Structure formats: C-alpha cells, structure tokens
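1st attempt posting a full record on here, be nice pls
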Amino acid sequence: MLASPISIPSVESWKFGTTHGDGDLKSYPISCGGMDLVLSIPGCSAPFDASENLKGPGRKTLTLNIPMDWDGPFGGMETTLLNVVCAKSEQFFGEKLTCVQVMDRYKTISKKQAEYPRNLRVKLTEGIRATRYWDAQRTRIDAPAHHAGMTINTVVHMRGLWVSADAWGLVCDATDLQVLDAPVVECPF
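the predicted structure (as tokens):
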C-alpha cells in the first residue's frame, strides 16, 4: 500500500504559545516552524448547513466530509495531540491529569463513523478574520445563504488550543472556502 501524500505537521513539532485569556477559558496559539498551521483540503462536501454558535453571533460551525486521504492524518493527529496534552497537562490545566481525564475532556474536531467519510468541524467567522468565499474561477464571492450539498475546497487554520475548567479542544477556522459545486435550488412558487 502506498503512503498517503497528505500530511499534517507532527504534533510534536507544534509550538504552543503564551496563554491568552484568564478565568475559565484560556487559549494557546499554535505555530509550526514559526508559521501558522494552515491546511488546504480539496474536495470536501458539506452535508448540512452551518449551525449557529450558541455562545454568540459572528461564528458558525460547518461540518465537512473530508476526502478519504485525510482520514488517517486527522486520526493520527488527534491521537498524538491527546498524548502530548496528557504529558503537558499541568501546563494546560494547572494540574496533573491522567490520560483518561484528558481524553474525557477533549472535544474533537473530527469524527469517523464506520465506512462514512471523516467529518471535520470548522468555524466560519465574521468580522476581522471573516471567512472568505471564492467561486470555481477563483473570483471572490459573497457568503452563500446555505452550505448544505456543496462541494468545497477548504483552507483551514488550526489557530490554537482552547482550555476551560472541564473541556478542551482545537480552534479550527475555515479561512477560505472555494465553492466548486452548489445544489440548484428552485423557487417553490
């Protein structure tokens, strides 16, 4: 079997920056080799529309089915991330946690179920770091009203690690979405 040409930089090579925030929610910016950790994932599909963030306006979550080539790299990345965070639990949580405790608190960004494609949850943003949209001819377009049924090339910024008192996970922003195929919606009248 040939090795997949797809790769995510090894979690061991990630640098977790200085803590931002205080109180219950903190974040640690991620870089790799002195640069932002950015992945370009072609050929994703959006099975559902983006969902609103319950904690406030300006951010939505979009679930993408990612190509099978990305299944192993994302699965491996999350397994290694759990091990790294477990080894550094005092740094991130302020106390030594067992690996089971770290795993129980983790809010995954990707999920694999049976033979179905791995899902990747990304944030769509507005404002300063607004998600940009492009058409198949690489022309900037407005954000679509709906995302369900689209085929999309995605640029994802793994921006940081967030930690609260009882949960933690990765901040995974979709910085750019290139709409390759969108369902035609007919007027019902």
